Structure formats: C-alpha cells, structure tokens
Amino acid sequence: ATALAAVLAAPALAADLTVGFSQIGSESGWxxxxxxxxxxxxxxxxxxxxxxxxQQKQENQLKxxxxxIAQGVDAIFIAPVVATGWDNVLxxxxxxxxxxxxxxxxxxxADDSLYLTAVTSDTVHEGRVAxxxxxxxxxxxxxxxVELQGTVGSSPAINRKKGFDEAIASHANLKIIRTQTGxxxxxxxxxxxxxxxxxxxxxxxxxxxxxxxxxxAVGAIQAIKExxxxxxxxxxxxxxxxxPDIFKAIADGEANATVELTPxxxxxxxxxxxxxxxxxxxxxxxxxxxxxxxxxxxxxxxxYEARKNLGY
Length: 312
Ligand code: GYE
Description:
Structural class: alpha/beta
Subcellular location: Cell envelope
Shape: elongated
Distance between the termini: 39 Å
Organism: Methylobrevis pamukkalensis
Largest sheet: 6 strands, parallel
Protein name: ABC transporter periplasmic-binding protein YtfQ
Bound molecules: beta-D-fucofuranose
Radius of gyration: 21 Å
Strand content: 15-25%
Order of helices and strands: HEHEHEHEEHEHEHEHEHEHEEH
Family: Belongs to the bacterial solute-binding protein 2 family.
Number of helices: 11
Pfam families: Peripla_BP_4
Strand order of the largest sheet: 2-1-3-4-5-11
C-alpha cells in the first residue's frame, strides 16, 4: 500500500508545477541532449515545462526570464550563457518569490541567495582530468598543445581552461602554443583548427588538441584529416562531454579521450525543487554531477550504441 501510495503521490506532487527554462540554444550535441532529457524528466513528473531558446544571446535570456516572471511560473531554470550580468533579473525573480535553479553553468554573483541551487559538473575538475590524461599519455616527450576554448565568458570555458592549465603546469614538456575560442560549435572548431594548422607548419608542430567540448573536437578532427594528418595519432585529441560522435571517433582511433558530462541536469533540479516546495527542504547550493574519463579502453563502440538514441 505504501509503495502504491508513493507511485500515486509522486506525479501528483508536481502536476500543478509550471517551470520556465531559459535554454542557451543548440550549439552542441550535448546541449540538444540536455533539452530532450529536460522535456522527458518534466513529463515523468507531470510538470508543465516552457522552454525559451536564447540563440546564444544573454539579452534573449534576460527577456525570457522576465517573461516567465510576468507569467507567474512556479520556478525558473536558467542555463546561463555567460557568467556575469545576472544580478538584476535574479533580484526581480526573488522579489516575485520565484525560485531559480541554474543548470550546467554557473554565474558570478556576490549574493548566492539569488538562486536556490546550481546543478552542474565540476568544470575545473573536468579540465584537470583532461590535462592529467594528456600528461600521462605523452610522458617525457615534448608536446605542443592547441586549445579550442568554449564560449567566451562562460563558466565552463573559464574553468576548463583553468583546470587544464593547472594539470600541465608542473610538466615543462607540455605547452599550449595556441588557444582560441570555437564557441562550443563544430563549425567554429573546424575553422579555428584550420587556422592553427596553417600557422603551425601544416599541423606538423602540433602534438595534441584540447577542446573544451566534443563538438569542437569533432570539427577539428575533420580539419586534421583534410590537412592530410591522422587525428588520434599525429595529433592526440582530448575533449569533454561524451557525446555519441566522439565515441565513434574514439572507436575509429581518431580521438583519444573524453570526460563525461551528463545531459540530465534537470532530473536532480526538479527533485530539489519539489522537495523545497513541498517540505521546505533547502537543497545544497551546488548539486554536483559526475565526471568520468573515457578512452579507447572503455568500449567506445558500446558507449556509442548506448547513447545514440538519447536525443543527442
Ligand atoms: O560542455 C558544451 C555546451 O555548459 C557545460 O555547454 C555546458 C557546455 C557543454 O555547449 O557542449
């Protein structure tokens, strides 16, 4: 009877909840998967979800949040495209007593009462894991690294750079020779990699690529192949997200390692929101998701199969 009550009670608890989600856009495969998973997690709980696509622009996110406030939604989720510039709109949400939850990226604010919790991975740690993997893989060899950064001013771009820099700092043989943003997209990842290759002796000076996400790595792999070099061998490739296409590349020997980022940030966010609303339970300020390293030794073909239908 208790089990049945729980089954009956769980969706009913959330059936009257309306959540507005200000999503960044669809810059990467990971982002597309996060949007699909958020819809699925809302549906599971009977939550009415309204998604606003900001097309990569903070001004669109500010408009969307203000419109959610005007509509009187019960909660607002924000995946903040950049880290700064959120205080005013979050104060407006606070005045309207609408809880805000941050998904997958963090913000710079002096007042952390402006949001209920942030569901993210430890993006500094991700960069560190990528850097440590590379240091271990190259050993004593000299290695000139090129870096494709994520969106300028976004928390994952800032932190993934920081973590990686920290990890290679004690290895004098590892050096970043070029670094530029590829805006987390495949197209820009390819373009910028082409310019790196041109500037570095047709790519022959480059030992490794570190990309802040898999999509940029996938674009860069194409550029490496078009330059007549072998990605994964001539140029090592390490990135972050664990999207299906990078597993395909790893299985084909064209990429070497990725750090997993779950697309399910919304599940824990909805649960925290419901517990807060129904029992007044304050969640921790940070709900941290896991980050696991995958290489060719971790059955990339199987990982590809397991993920390819998850909305990426
Ligand atoms: O890694 C990248 C995306 O915000 C942590 O955003 C997220 C990043 C993710 O576009 O692929």
